[in-house]
């Protein structure tokens, strides 16, 4: 990202005004973004086909947007500082097929929400400064996303938008997780992807007024003749989050067709690095981690791998046999399981939640690369534990399922 044009396109007064509103945004950030989504869907109901309504209801999307807007305002004179956030969000936008013409719609409703929420505090000067700042921020995102669209459409087997895939196999992996093997309906080539990346599935569910877009990590290694996603069925009773996972589990069968976007995402394994690799997953967070495991064994047969998986118990532990088979075939892989509530007769290496002492037993050295993924509670518990291992922070990589929130 080149930001010389960003620095010169905003005058010092605008920069000063926007930066001065950062404390106000911190205080009212979520109220502003909640109001923003109300206005957006009121004025443009068709956008409900794009935005994940579950994350709206749980407040995660407004929180994630508030964090991004807040970071951009804080660094409006040095937007290169938020490059990791821009790249992460741009991957999601490309995967969801967000278009440049949608940015002005977002800007208009965001400014209206700021004005609604701040009332008299939102002076003409503040509103004018924010209008200019939003245009600059939007230009940065649009530019990065256009590069991604170009890259994905020009790679072998790549495409933009949605391409129809046939479900060729449906395999129950545990009481709650089922794998779907997907092959292009057009019998064309599949693009290479980085282990850890995801695809977006467009679910057109009978009886639902809008389409639902969901991102699922690819759980198999690249270079196959199929994509595989392994989906956890979320309990739908009283919860909106189960809409798509229940549709996939209960209604989608072998032979059915699902529209899918090309793989994307900035959380992926670096196979150029040969430091010992530590892969840690909680629950269905194992899907991107599993793709990394299968890839490293194929591409880096001499790299030591420590694969640690945490689950409630054996009933919900998916892909277990597959991991055991990999470890039996590959002496480089050592596996460990941790069950928080084991059933009678379940066998695991540790019972409870992952602790620093147990991790020290599993991992021989703090000079390693760690990749971890799982539900929010698991991630919040694990991150401070990992930093206590004294692993340099640039060697710790993680992915959230859902909108990114601070750990």
Automatic annotation (TrEMBL):
Co-factor note (free text): Binds 1 heme b (iron(II)-protoporphyrin IX) group per subunit. Binds 1 FAD per subunit.
Pfam families attached to this UniProt entry: FAD_binding_6, Globin, NAD_binding_1
Sites marked Involved in heme-bound ligand stabilization and O-O bond activation: 37
Transmembrane segment boundaries: none
Alphabetical keyword list: Detoxification, Dioxygenase, FAD, Flavoprotein, Heme, Iron, Metal-binding, NAD, NADP, Oxidoreductase, Oxygen transport, Transport
GO molecular function: FAD binding; heme binding; metal ion binding; nitric oxide dioxygenase NAD(P)H activity; oxygen binding; oxygen carrier activity
Region annotation (Reductase) ranges: 157-407
Source organism superkingdom: Bacteria
Active site positions: 103, 145
Entry's EC annotation: 1.14.12.17
This protein's domain notes: Consists of two distinct domains; an N-terminal heme-containing oxygen-binding domain and a C-terminal reductase domain with binding sites for FAD and NAD(P)H.
Protein family (similarity comment): Belongs to the globin family. Two-domain flavohemoproteins subfamily.
Name of the featured protein: Flavohemoprotein
Species per Swiss-Prot/TrEMBL record: Piscibacillus halophilus
Source species taxonomy: Bacteria, Bacillati, Bacillota, Bacilli, Bacillales
Gene: hmp
